[in-house]
Amino acid sequence: MLEVRDITAAYTSAIIIEKVSLDLGAGEIKAVLGRNGVGKSTLMKCIAGVLPARNGTVSLRGEDLPVSAAHRARLGVAYVPQGREIFPRLTTIENIEVAAHACGHDAHDAVESAFEQFPALRERAHVMGGNLSGGQQQILAIARALALRPSVMILDEPTEGIQPSIIMEIQGILRDLNRSEGVTILLAEQNLDFVSGLAQECYLMNKGRMEQQMPMADIQSNPQLVQEMLGV
Ligand SMILES: Nc1ncnc2c1ncn2[C@@H]1O[C@H](COP(=O)(O)OP(=O)(O)OP(=O)(O)O)[C@@H](O)[C@H]1O
């Protein structure tokens, strides 16, 4: 469904990721794992269209995607960035409305459906994004991405800075989205426990390159590889 081919990207002259490829079939959940700084976020940004790649292509259902995050969002690729990037001075409702408007969807419907799915957000409907806890912001970021009615969701380190009980809640939310709504999910993560409960396959990144692809069970049963790739 989503094909990433030979992506090379840089912020300045130094190449950060080189010839990185991955595939995501419809309805799959896959993870990109690697230590801090190996280039996971850079790859996610290139797939979302936030950062133009120097080389390579991203295609959805066989069609090359345009180099624009807004276009990709309208075509069904939703991106939840690292750090969530909730609009701090907009309320919960307004954060969702902005995303729905951007894709030409009915904002009222998007808010209602988000509140049905995530009752905790309804209780904080008029709270400014910046005043929500990290976990609440992460759930809002997922709700905001869903307002785009995506077929693919890309989440960059959704567990970063989130307390353990909420991490489990986020895991449940993503599992439900995948099972009940068929949303295809790509995660960049360092939290192996979180990913193990969700993904079937993982890609291991190191120094800007995709080194290996394997079933999640294989990395879980290989502590030496976990130590080498994730440092835990
Ligand atoms: N905006 C930027 N400008 C210049 N260099 C950047 C920028 N963003 C990231 N980098 C550099 O690119 C490299 C890869 O960073 P990236 O954020 O993609 O890694 P990561 O695997 O996601 O790590 P982390 O888990 O810390 O986010 C790092 O050396 C980082 O310093």
UniProtKB/TrEMBL annotation:
<comment type="similarity">
    <text>Belongs to the ABC transporter superfamily.</text>
</comment>
<dbReference type="InterPro" id="IPR003593">
    <property type="entry name" value="AAA+_ATPase"/>
</dbReference>
<feature type="domain" description="ABC transporter">
    <location>
        <begin position="2"/>
        <end position="232"/>
    </location>
</feature>
<keyword id="KW-0067">ATP-binding</keyword>
<dbReference type="GO" id="GO:0015807">
    <property type="term" value="P:L-amino acid transport"/>
</dbReference>
<dbReference type="GO" id="GO:0005524">
    <property type="term" value="F:ATP binding"/>
</dbReference>
<protein>
    <recommendedName>
        <fullName>ABC transporter domain-containing protein</fullName>
    </recommendedName>
</protein>
<keyword id="KW-0029">Amino-acid transport</keyword>
<dbReference type="GO" id="GO:0015658">
    <property type="term" value="F:branched-chain amino acid transmembrane transporter activity"/>
</dbReference>
<dbReference type="InterPro" id="IPR052156">
    <property type="entry name" value="BCAA_Transport_ATP-bd_LivF"/>
</dbReference>
<dbReference type="Pfam" id="PF00005">
    <property type="entry name" value="ABC_tran"/>
</dbReference>
<keyword id="KW-0813">Transport</keyword>
<dbReference type="InterPro" id="IPR003439">
    <property type="entry name" value="ABC_transporter-like_ATP-bd"/>
</dbReference>
<dbReference type="InterPro" id="IPR027417">
    <property type="entry name" value="P-loop_NTPase"/>
</dbReference>
<keyword id="KW-0547">Nucleotide-binding</keyword>
<dbReference type="GO" id="GO:0016887">
    <property type="term" value="F:ATP hydrolysis activity"/>
</dbReference>
